[in-house]
Amino acid sequence: MKARVHVMLKDGVLDPQGEAVRHALGSLGFEGVNGVRQGKVIELDLADGTTEDQIAAMCEKLLANTVIESYRIETL
Amino acid sequence: MKARVHVMLKDGVLDPQGEAVRHALGSLGFEGVNGVRQGKVIELDLADGTTEDQIAAMCEKLLANTVIESYRIETL
To answer: Which keywords appear in this protein's UniProt record, sorted alphabetically (chains A, B) (predicted)?
Structure first.
């Protein structure tokens, strides 16, 4: 089975990487870009029968820093 | 309007970051993780009326390195 985990910085946490992208888009002439947030997406190829609880444990222990990041699990 | 851009390394391009995550998950005792690919997700807050073509241009010019990365645009 496959699963996709989206990890984003929580609202209110400063995102300098996203801010740099926003600035660069403006410099390239793209107008109307009001905000950019950058996160990670991790595609996992897992053994069949892996539960969502196990994937959540992977997120809590390794994939996301839950102090500043939130995660969302999507099974495919 | 909001849009989300997913940027992943193309198939066949070595992903050392994903490989490191796979190895780390194994070390933490998670079994059955056969493969991990890591990519980026970029959330854009755009002016209303921005077309998908304009977002694709942002991807081609800045957000993705289309030699080794593929991108997918999702408007929300």
So the answer is: ATP-binding, Cytoplasm, Ligase, Nucleotide-binding, Purine biosynthesis
